Amino acid sequence: MLIIGHRVVRDLLADQEKHLHDLIADTYRLHDEGRTAVPHSVFLRFPDNTRNRIIGLPAYVGGEEAMAGIKWIASFPGNVDRGLERASAAILLNSMADGRPETLVEASLISARRTAASAALAAAELTAEPEPAGISLIGCGPINREILRFTHAALPSLREVALHDLDPARAKAFAEEARGLLPGARFTVHRRAEDALATFRLVSLATTAREPYLGLSSCPPGSTVLHVSLRDLTVEAILDAQNVVDDADHVCRERTSLHLAEQATGGRDFIDTTIGALLRGNSGFRRDPDRTVVFSPFGLGALDIALARWVRDAARRQGKGIDIDGFLPEPS
């Protein structure tokens, strides 16, 4: 069993934005081709604490080197007040030759960066502006920090950032830290989410919202909204927009904004296409320059497995990680 800890993962993923962008795009294409298996995630909730949860995401990714595994990710929002990360995660990879577990990877950074890479990929594919000058970030946590990193790598024209967080001090601290990602960029903190929405035509929503609270009437025509946290937007906002998802069956669950829209309308006709079909060029999707387009990615486990496999291969090449002998039974 190969154990790969956080520091090794961090070092291996440093300055790999372009490569991860391509890896996530390839995985979305495989998913659209039916060459992945992504069962519904398992949500473990606690009867005496509804705020916290742990999610299990099993997945299989085909292709040249098939791989299966599961991500086990906990979300404990109260950790932030104690100086800890809200999310912690691990990925277990299984050999497709004999099914035996072979690699355990610390996965908080993998989870954040696959999310950011998928959002940046959608931004590059969907934005109506060939060279957008700025982006609005609603929610000033680690996910939007990574989204800013990856979106700037995909769209280097970004030089201005509008910020909003329920905690203005957190937004200011985010701006100070993020200046290292975009040297020379201008950061502006807005007290109202609507003011941040109105500032630029590229928006990322990455909050811990559990119920819809936000409309999109403040957005300029032709805006692109990366609805990463999935529960920010009202049903009306979803129905008024063009909607792109990663997988309709996955995203229309667990009271996401799209799930509520499905319940309200009795169907999924409001979903225009998937990102995989868009990347493969067979979606038939046409961007309406006067409407807002919303990308709502559930976060497929296949992305985690593909990225964890890349980390494992890189660790093996560089002789990193810890090999544990005797973890599995000896062959009889």
Beta-strand share of residues: 15-25%
* Low-pLDDT runs: none
Listing every helix as H and every strand as E from the N terminus to the C terminus, the arrangement reads EHHEEEEEEHEHEHEHEEHEHHEHEHE
Overall domain count: 2
Distance between the termini: 18 Å
The proportion of residues forming helix, as a percent range, comes to 25-40%
Give the overall silhouette.
globular
Structural class: alpha/beta
**Helix run count:** 11
Query: For this structure, what is the CATH class of the largest domain?
Result: Alpha Beta
Any guess at the CATH architecture of the largest domain? 3-Layer(aba) Sandwich
Average predicted confidence as pLDDT: 95
Under CATH, the homologous superfamily of the largest domain reads: NAD(P)-binding Rossmann-like Domain
**Tally of strands:** 16
CA gyration radius, whole angstroms: 20 Å
Let me know the largest β-sheet. Answer: 8 strands, mixed
CATH T-level fold name of the largest domain: Rossmann fold
Describe this structure in words.
By secondary structure, the protein is an alpha/beta fold. The chain is 35% helix and 25% strand. The chain has 11 helices and 16 strands. The chain has helices at residues 6-13, 17-32, 108-126, 142-154, 168-178, 193-199, 235-240, 248-251, 257-265, 275-280, 301-318, and strands at 2-4, 36-37, 42-46, 49-61, 67-75, 87-94, 101-106, 134-138, 160-164, 186-189, 202-205, 224-227, 242-245, 271-274, 293-296, 322-323. The strands form 2 sheets. Strands 1, 2, 3, 4, 5, 6, 7 and 16 form an 8-stranded mixed sheet that branches. The protein has an 8-stranded parallel sheet with strand order 10-9-8-11-12-15-13-14, sandwiched between helices. Helix 2 crosses helix 3 and helix 3 crosses helix 4. The mean pLDDT is 95.
